[in-house]
Amino acid sequence: MISHDDHLARILAAAPAPRVERLAVSGGSLLGRLLAADVRSAVELPAFTNSAMDGYAVHSADVNEPCELPVVGDIAAGDTRSLSCEPGSTWRIMTGAPMPEGADAVVPVELTDGGVERVRFEAAATPGNHIRHAGEDVRVGDLLLPRGTHVAPHHVAVLASSGVTQVDVVARPRVVVVSTGDELRAAGSELAHGQIHDSNGPMLAALVEAAGAQLVEQVHLPDDARAVSQLLERAVESADVVITTGGVSAGAFDVVKEALIDAGDVTFDKVAMQPGKPQGFGLLGERRVPVFTLPGNPMSTLVSFHVFVLPTLDAMGGRPPRECERAVVERGWTSPPGRAQFARVAVRRDDSGRLVIHPNSRQGSHHLGELAEANALALVPADVDVVQADDELDIQRLLTKE
Ligand code: AMP
Ligand code: MG
Questions:
Q1: For labeling, which of 18, 24, 204, 365 is most exposed (least CB within 10 Å)?
Q2: Cβ-proximal residues to 139 (8 Å cutoff; 6+ apart), any chain
Q3: Which EC class is the enzyme in (predicted)?
């Protein structure tokens, strides 16, 4: 048996580097994506000096006390003329409209009589007032958004106002999920004696999405090695990762193993963990696509995903490893000797602010009735057989929607 750490290290060493793709800034698809490169501005903002108020553009020297001036005309936002303001005259101007050459202040309409032909200013103008200067906000070459930014709606505003239409982001790994087993029927189907609902398929599909990856297909296959081989051959042509469940232990119908073991590209191991002992991993096809063959028991699948698949999807998606936390055991339990246990637990803060672990009372790899209470996996090291109250353990949060 190998340790889960060694198995994961081997997988991460083989996992491909993040891929980059180009996405449009408009349309909403950029939200939550990770920028693969710095974005710098090719323009200055504001692009032209403009008025910050509805009012009158003036030479401030003309308005150093209450007075009246002739109004040359109107400048609205979007006016593309190049205009100038002669001394002794004024333009009526709107917020965001380009300042006429020569004017050095805007007098807000509220401080005037609002005249159209002639206007009366009630107070003196202050030089520079209510003007937005070209380049005062952003200069050409300024860093708008650094590489590694998770794009939020306000970042989209930065990109769009700078005229950026497309950016490079880290591609979300495209994942195919395959459940295998003659006994499996889709949820909602009627079951004959001996049949069960496929829960791993839908769970893995949800886990893939929760991990920020992209589910491209979720299929169920019978226990037929040829069907498994054919599906895998097709899947690795376009997917970045394939995850199978079931068919990798020591039974007579362990067809995933049967389909892959002779190809030599997937290694099957016994990993010293509970649940999740039988694991397979390899790179398949010309594109060397990572293929995880996870065991079929639902809790083995859940744990295997969190321990092996999630760190791989994170690495391929350009994300840093997830933080592990420490928590204190409230009441103890026993753990299988010689294997690390990933126990389903509820972790809560107690009154003194400590993170406290409450284990599910049943930890079999098929037990899922108490899962609603669990929000984490607690790692009991392989050399610990009895977990005691007040022990401290590493915990990993179960994935929820990002
Ligand atoms: P296997 O790894 O194929 O030997 O399956 C181990 C156990 O997990 C058996 O009890 C299977 O019926 C069950 N199982 C396998 N795949 C699934 C699945 N997709 N959904 C629910 N249970 C499964
Ligand atoms: Mg099976």
A1: 24
A2: 41, 44
A3: transferase
Question: How many Å lie between the centroid of ligand 1 and the Cα of residue 46?
Answer: 61
- pLDDT (tens digit per residue) in 359-393: 999 999 999 899 999 999 999 999 999 999 999 99
DSSP letters, 75-122, are E-TT-----B--TT-EEEE-TTPBPPBT--EEEEGGGB---SSEEEES
pTM of the model: 0.89
Q: Quick check: bond before 275 cis, omega within 30?
A: yes
d(CA 309, CA 210): 12
| Ligand with minimal distance to 184 CA | 1
Tell me if 218 CB under 6 Å of ligand 1.
no
Instruction: Give me Rg for the CA atoms of the chain.
Output: 32
Residue whose Cα lies nearest atom 5 of ligand 1: it is 296
Ligand closest to the CA atom of residue 183: 1
Q: Which residues, in sequence order, are bridge partners of residue 316?
A: none
Cβ 184 under 6 angstroms from ligand 1: yes
